[in-house]
Amino acid sequence: MTTIIVQPSGTEIHIEPGDTVLAGLQKAGYAYTVGCRRGGCGICKIDVLEGTFSYCRPVADTVISEQERSDGTCLSCRAVPTDDVTIQLRDASLRLANPLLGQINARARERAKAASTAPEEQ
Amino acid sequence: MGIMRMGYAHVRVTDMTEAKNHYASTLGLYETLEDTSPEGNKRVFYKGWDEWDHHSVVLEEGGVGVVKYGWKVENEADIEAIEKKAQTFGLTVERMAKGENPEVGDGIRFSTTSDHVFEVYHSQTAIGTEVGTHNPDPFPRHLVGVGVPALDHSLITCEDPKLMERLLMEVFDFYATERVQTSLDDDHDLVGTWLTSNNQIHQLAVIGGPQGKLHHFAFRLDDWSEVGHAADLLTMDDVSVDVTPTRHGITRGVTTYFFDPSGNRNEVFAGGYLAFPDRPTNVWTVDQLGQGIFYHARELNERFTSVLT
Ligand code: FES
């Protein structure tokens, strides 16, 4: 399972393999400032403090510079986490826009956690 | 009459396969040419079904945003007249030779005060509309997707909209149909301006923002129901929709905004009242900008002024 931890609140979100950071957060009921959702405008940039991701589609150099490609800057609408990531939003705040999806995601996270920490069968 | 219309919008896309899917299959533009630019980038040229010239949209692989706009003049002599006016304005104008853009004739090229590249030309290979001119049907029977008939207008940003407005008025003989101002006083700042040279409510609009950026380019539809139908198709094709169908206070047009697969904003636009040079310019004060842009919501969404390519 892949978890996104959103700092500074420490909010944990469970995301499905292959989902972008944005898709994962939105499917879990969360909203923050985004624009084109297509890697073209750069509004959705966040910082990845820990963990790794890769871009699922080509992203223009004018939107994300050479340096930004290595300093943790993440175009969240195009970035797919390759393992657990800890992120921090920039000017935007994370809002739980859909509490129903939030509850479902919390349960999925608990189930995934229980499965990964279950004692090994003897 | 000088400038007749925006002849083409040439934009960049990050992935040509996805872009073709959007512009050809979802919007229904007709591909007229595929080639490689002198710089080695893949390019695709498109026309709408009700356009007669070879192309109105050019996609070029490698990045996002606008490369340039083409403006078609009525008479060959208009090119030289505009060249003179551009030079008087203080712009550096270069000559553009036939064939520099496939199927486009001689013309001029200059960079505007907004850092956008404009080309002015008189001839482009005529292909003819999809319905022809002899006893034409009102639309082609087998439209694809939205089936947009034609390119309509564009909105760009720049640091000094007042200067850009002056350029469009002095060099292109455009007039402003609508303006957004910080106040009604003489010393107001211009927040945005909507300009045209004919009866079309706007051909180019300019709002304050960074230099050289694209806000959107728009395709023309007939009415509300077509805009609604287009929005349905956009959702069916999983297009990222920016603004669902609504009306603009400014221009009175009805609209839906969406993003192409590279993040360039597109619009389908219908209506708007007839423009005339002697009609008093509509003026919006900036406190009413929300209503001016999105008449029903009466407030700007957070993306409208910040999301650009
Ligand atoms: S929302 Fe536009 S780049 Fe991500």
TrEMBL record, chain A:
Q: Which domain of life is it from?
A: Bacteria
UniProt cross-references to InterPro entries, sorted A to Z: 2Fe-2S_ferredoxin-like_sf (IPR036010), 2Fe-2S_ferredoxin-type (IPR001041), 2Fe2S_fd_BS (IPR006058), Beta-grasp_dom_sf (IPR012675)
One Pfam family of this chain: Fer2
Where the record annotates domain 2Fe-2S ferredoxin-type, the positions are 1-93
How is this protein named in the record?
Answer: 2Fe-2S iron-sulfur cluster-binding protein
Origin species, per record, is Janibacter alittae
From TrEMBL, chain B:
Q: Is Oxidoreductase among this UniProt entry's keywords?
A: yes
What is the E.C. number?
1.13.11.2
- Repeat among keywords: yes
GO molecular function terms here? catechol 2,3-dioxygenase activity
Record's keyword terms, sorted: Aromatic hydrocarbons catabolism, Dioxygenase, Metal-binding, Oxidoreductase, Repeat
Family matches, as Pfam families: Diox-like_N (PF22247), Glyoxalase (PF00903)
Please give the Gene3D superfamilies that the UniProt record associates with this protein.
Answer: 2,3-Dihydroxybiphenyl 1,2-Dioxygenase, domain 1
Q: PROSITE patterns this protein is in? A: VOC
User: Where would I find the VOC domain in this sequence?
Assistant: 5-123, 150-271
- Alphabetized NCBIfam families for the sequence: catechol_2_3
Q: How does it assemble?
A: Homotetramer.
Q: Which family does it belong to?
A: Belongs to the extradiol ring-cleavage dioxygenase family.
Q: What is this protein called?
A: Catechol 2,3-dioxygenase
